[in-house]
């Protein structure tokens, strides 16, 4: 009799407990990010970033950009590069592809149009990457986002948002 009552009690409260648990887990992955803006004075660009997921690590002495690190292995690098030796946007895309896939990875998407390039793929280990490059007069503005494959549900949409908010010469 007591076991029957205990089972009845568990069967009543278990669905409520599971609903609360799944709601809190969904917020951790799908919760509202607080977006902040990083602006770079040297190369005159800006990009938004989800401050609840990744944190800035400080600019290097040369002031070309910023690295942001997340708790789950995500990393955002944003930087400017002077345009030297007549490197084209396609040359920069090839350079980025080589650097991001150096461990046997694979580019799965690449588009080059006008003064912009977008590249995404895998690094050959356990990470996904997404990069955008913009040519702005005498320099390039670049961001590279890498994140573990298990975090795709979160960071695929973050990559899309970053791509839309990268502004060269936001003046």
Topology, element by element:
Layout: H1 2-30, E1 35-40, E2 45-50, E3 54-56, E4 65-70, E5 75-82, H2 89-100, E6 106-113, E7 116-122, E8 127-136, E9 139-148, H3 152-165, E10 167-168
Antiparallel strand pairs: 1-2, 2-10, 3-4, 4-5, 5-9, 6-7, 7-8, 8-9
Characterize the structure shown.
This protein is α+β, with helices and mostly antiparallel strands. It folds into two domains: 31 residues; 137 residues, Mog1/PsbP, alpha/beta/alpha sandwich (Protein Transport Mog1p, Chain A). Helix content is 32%, strand content 39%. The strands form two sheets. The chain has a seven-stranded antiparallel beta sheet with strand order 3-4-5-9-8-7-6, with helices on both faces. A three-stranded antiparallel beta sheet has the order 1-2-10. Strand 7 and strand 8 form a beta hairpin. The chain is globular.
Radius of gyration: 21 Å
The helix/strand series, from N terminus to C terminus, equals HEEEEEHEEEEHE
- Taking strands numbered 1, 2, ... along the chain, how are they ordered across the largest sheet? 3-4-5-9-8-7-6
Domain count, please report it: 2
Q: DSSP strand (E) fraction?
A: 35-45%
Largest sheet: 7 strands, antiparallel
CATH class of the largest domain: Alpha Beta
Find the count of extended strands (DSSP E, 2+ residues).
Answer: 10
Low-confidence stretches: 9-29
CATH architecture verdict of the largest domain? 3-Layer(aba) Sandwich
At the fourth level of CATH, the homologous superfamily of the largest domain is: Mog1/PsbP, alpha/beta/alpha sandwich
CATH topology of the largest domain: Protein Transport Mog1p, Chain A
| Range of helix content | 25-40%
How far apart are the first and last residues' alpha carbons, in Å? 75 Å
